[in-house]
User: Fold Tryptophan--tRNA ligase from Brevundimonas basaltis.
Amino acid sequence: PRRVLSGIQASGALHLGNYLGALKRFTQLQDGGAPCFLFVADLHAVTVWQDPTLLTAQTREIAAAYLASGLDPAKSVIFPQSAVRAHSELAWIFNCVARLGWLDRMTQFKEKSGKHKERSSVGLYTYPVLQAADILLYKATEVPTGEDQKQHLELTRDIAAKFNNDFGVPGFFPLPEPLTQGPAPRVMSLRDGAAKMSKSDPSDQSRINLTDDADAIVAKVRKARTDPEPLPDTVEALDARPEAKNLVTIYAALADISREQVLAEFGGQGFGAFKPALADLAVASMAPVTAEMRRLMADPAEIDLVLKNGADRAAAIADPVVDEVKKIVGFWRA
Ligand code: ATP
Ligand code: MG
Assistant:
């Protein structure tokens, strides 16, 4: 059976990249009839320091974003990762399946640890192993994410295949399909066309947050880094111009049209004309989501109920799977 699974880290303010690369896709998949499991990745968030009080608030904020972008708790299971113990249990077993050499190749660890590898948490290093546990615990068939997670999803498949093979249980864990081909699978920073838009980027100017008001969005788009040339007429000509390509891609994804259609309208025009149109579109597209998030966060009771019910439903599926894994591995059971 089909099962979609994905998560978003409770590591700070959600941004347009999360919305276009992840949230919008989840809603499309749910509305297409796929059963969806969507968690708030709080275990992943603490791979870098999180203030405990903020972590709770950020967890609720991600849940609010799920609901505000159209996910329906009657159809989709929305839960905090740490509330389902099986994630941590399976992650340990997978830590003993995954090879150091595999993790050494993960580019996200290199990017996030930067020059201070020896001062990074061990959790940041084994993060993709926990991610494999998140996915395989539910025997997910499809995993929608942004393009930045592609390498981690390949690792998940490697871990599944090695577990099935080492323990002689062919097909026990199905190999999940990565879905990284959305309308905007890699939204770039507004300050740097070579870096992806990220929650953890220290510059708030680099991203449009889901909680930004209209004035902030307009100001950030106006100041977004660009080259001085007018927009080209063809999509191919965008390849050499990462900042222009990013803004055109964002426009297309927000308007649900192709980049060709965007250039048919704006090709030959300067950013002086394009940026205000993009800002208006961003404000109009985000405003309903933002307003609903604010409403939900004003009284967390509704969110907390969704998270509690989601955790119970998720555990009902995950706990028997981890029990079976323990049996396969040979752990003592009464
Ligand atoms: P952090 O900097 O803390 O890692 P993040 O912005 O990368 O935060 P995540 O919680 O790690 O956000 O990712 C949540 C989802 O959003 C994932 O599916 C990820 O692939 C997607 N995503 C993150 N950044 C982008 C982006 N710039 N463009 C498209 N999708 C993105
Ligand atoms: Mg990330």
Q: What stands out?
A: The domain at 212-295 is CATH 1.10.240.10 (Tyrosyl-Transfer RNA Synthetase). Strands lie at 4-9, 36-41, 77-80, 142-144, 177-179. The mean pLDDT is 96. The longest strand covers residues 4-9.
